[in-house]
Write a structure and sequence with these properties.
The chain is α/β, with parallel strands linked by helices and 171 residues long. The protein has helices at 2-10, 29-39, 77-82, 94-102, 112-122, 157-170; strands spanning 44-48, 64-68, 106-109, 128-130. Strands 1-2-3-4 form a four-stranded parallel beta sheet.
């Protein structure tokens, strides 16, 4: 598969950067999820990331299925390429992302902008909900005496660049 992707990159094919929806899903999870559902009377289930949405298939009818998207993965590799970076992690087609969305009853987006993209892409706005930022900015926060910050995130290049920009240009 690695050589195939390298050849596809050489000829400029988008297939070099995209994955199938379930390529990152470990099928050994399915019986474990089914066993948990059989043992407990879950009312709802949250699945993180569209590439893990296959987990919903292991759940019986009647459980409210909520997909917490975290990110937009349809053609995500283009963002990296446009920024002059090597695509990292997971990128898939619009059709594959939509297939993952259809496994859920509701799709959570972090930002309104993403919610709008997902709703247009899926054609089902009523199933897409924007969580937004839950920080109450009305209450003033007293800064510490010395500048400090904390950044939580994976070490993917976009997060690393953002942290380095913040440290170099903001702090």
């Amino acid at each position: 598969p690695k050589l195939k992707r390298l050849l596809l990159r050489t000829v400029g094919s988008e297939a070099a950067y995209t994955w199938g929806l379930d390529d990152f899903y470990d099928p050994r999870l399915t019986p474990q999820i089914a066993a948990l559902c059989a043992r407990h009377a879950f009312d709802a289930a949250f699945v993180e990331y569209v590439y893990m949405s296959k987990a919903f298939d292991a759940m019986p009818p009647g459980i409210l299925k909520i997909l917490d998207t975290h990110d937009h993965f349809a053609l995500r590799h283009r963002t990296f390429l446009d920024a002059g970076l090597t695509p990292q992690w997971f990128s898939t087609s619009v059709a594959e992302e939509n297939a993952g969305f259809r496994r859920a009853d509701f799709i959570l987006a972090i930002q309104e902008r993403e919610a709008d993209v997902f709703a247009r892409q899926l054609g089902e706005a009523e199933r897409v909900v924007a969580v937004g930022h839950l920080l109450d900015v009305q209450e003033r926060i007293v800064p510490a005496t010395a500048p400090s910050a904390v950044f939580f995130g994976s070490s993917n290049p976009i997060n690393v660049d953002a942290a380095q920009y913040f440290i170099g240009s903001v702090l």
